[in-house]
Write a structure and sequence with these properties.
Uridine Diphospho-n-acetylenolpyruvylglucosamine Reductase, domain 2, Uridine Diphospho-n-acetylenolpyruvylglucosamine Reductase, domain 3, Uridine Diphospho-n-acetylenolpyruvylglucosamine Reductase, domain 1, about 25% strand, binds flavin-adenine dinucleotide, cell cycle, cell shape
Length: about 400
């Protein structure tokens, strides 16, 4: 029997009563509707890289979309940016990094900075993935969804998707308040993503949008470089921070066939060059575990002077101040590698303060205990309750 531990990057979570892997669009819709008609909890899963699931059995239906095609669409208008816009549609089950590699191979610019982010195209728009100065929102044109409320297919345009920092209308449909499930549509949004259409630019070069990346490439932020070089640099920087998903997982029976073999080999090579081997303590994580808090100007004034501050937008649209969750965690006394005690099977990544890792044999309660210790410690030090970035299923990490 398959468990969430087999399907998630952090490697924890209970047995799954029913796992369906539809290979057609109708099959995905039928699986979703069937769970609804039987009153069963539904979890649509992609790469399982943004989920922390309780160890108790999941008495519901898990749907993993097995459609992974990518198609360049006709009808790109020559009037748009001198014919440089190219529309590409990818099915929800397509591995995200397979998609990035494909686009770069076609000579398209727009997603190269998002190289090496684990997961699927379907989930990329749920939390508006972002890294190294790029967000998926900037290249999405529209998202084809199954609306579980109206029981119909809908096309959501970019302006209907309410993209924000690690946020979208899809993700918002799951929560009534930060980390508080909305009930009906949790742990999967009201809108099940069927495919995503991207508007990318025909260009072999892209903008280097982040300091660390510019340093790795020996250029300035804002300079243009070959997209392939940007991709390689991003993968290297990610490997050095333990922020590449462990590609060994694709050899496991539950993950086989979900990523292109050529790209699994490349990922293994990058990991090995970055010093990551089969016994890496940081291999099982959800990436960043906490979101960077967005505060009002008044709240931000209570932080120490040297705390990072960036302009941001509050959920209600007012201007706000984003600070760094990693900074807060570190300055509250939780440093890289932190564990609650020597024997604890979960700990902070030894390379990145924001990643909670399963060091081997951790259960959901071990990870939750570590997460709460950090939330409590940061709240005590700075009065800010950190909100988990992954979807936390069967546990309360408010
Ligand atoms: C090592 C590591 C590094 C990471 N780095 C980054 C980073 O730099 N930036 C970043 O933004 N994220 C990062 N992440 C988080 C994660 O990779 C992304 O959030 C990713 O988009 C999750 O994709 P997934 O397919 O694994 O989603 P899952 O974990 O399978 O699902 C997450 C949520 O999306 C929903 N979902 C999945 N598929 C669909 C669908 N078809 N329709 C509707 N809902 C769906 C699920 O129900 C769930 O609510 C990182 C994770 C790891 C492990």
């Amino acid at each position: 029997m398959t468990s969430f531990a087999d399907l998630t990057t952090i490697g924890v979570g209970g047995h799954i009563a029913v796992l369906l892997e539809p290979t057609t669009r109708d099959g995905v819709i039928e699986a979703v509707e069937d769970a609804y008609s039987k009153g069963k909890p539904l979890c649509v899963i992609g790469g399982g890289s943004n989920m922390l699931v309780d160890d108790a059995p999941f008495d519901g239906v898990v749907v993993r979309d097995a459609r992974r095609s990518i198609n360049v669409l006709d009808g790109t208008s020559s009037s748009e940016e001198d014919g440089r816009v190219v529309r590409v549609n990818a099915e929800a089950g397509c591995n995200w990094d397979d998609f990035v590699d494909y686009c770069i191979g076609l000579g398209l610019e727009g997603v190269e900075g998002l190289s090496g982010i684990p997961g699927t195209v379907g989930a990329s728009v749920v939390q508006n993935i972002g890294a190294y100065g790029q967000e998926v929102a900037s290249s999405v044109e529209n998202v084809e969804v199954w609306d579980r409320k109206e029981h119909t297919i809908a096309q959501l345009r970019k302006d209907q998707l309410a993209f924000g920092y690690r946020m979208s209308a899809l993700k918002a449909s799951m929560y009534s308040a930060p980390a508080t499930p909305a009930g009906e549509f949790f742990p999967t949004p009201r809108y099940v993503v069927l495919s995503v259409t991207f508007a990318l630019r025909r260009s072999a070069t892209g903008v280097v949008g982040y300091g660390q990346l510019a340093k790795a490439l020996g250029v300035e932020v804002g300079d243009r470089m070959e997209t392939a070089d940007i991709r390689n640099a991003v993968l290297k920087v990610r490997a050095a921070k333990g922020m590449l998903e462990d590609a060994h997982r694709y050899a496991e029976p539950a993950m086989q066939g979900t990523k292109k073999p050529r790209l699994v080999d490349i990922a293994l090579e990058v990991q090995a060059k970055g010093g990551v081997d089969g016994v890496d303590p940081n291999r099982h994580s959800c990436g960043s575990f906490f979101m960077n808090p967005i505060l009002t100007a008044e709240q931000s004034e209570t932080l120490p002077k040297d705390a990072p501050r960036f302009d941001a937008v509050l959920p209600d649209g007012r201007p706000g101040v984003k600070t760094s969750a990693a900074w807060l965690i570190d300055h509250a006394g939780f440093h890289k590698g932190f564990k609650i005690n020597e024997a604890a099977p979960a700990g902070l990544s030894t390379l990145h303060t924001l990643a909670l890792t399963n060091r081997g044999g951790a259960g959901s309660k071990d990870v939750a205990r570590l997460a709460r210790a950090i939330q409590d410690g940061v709240e005590k030090a700075y009065g800010i309750r950190l909100v988990p970035e992954p979807v936390v299923i069967g546990m309360d990490l408010r």
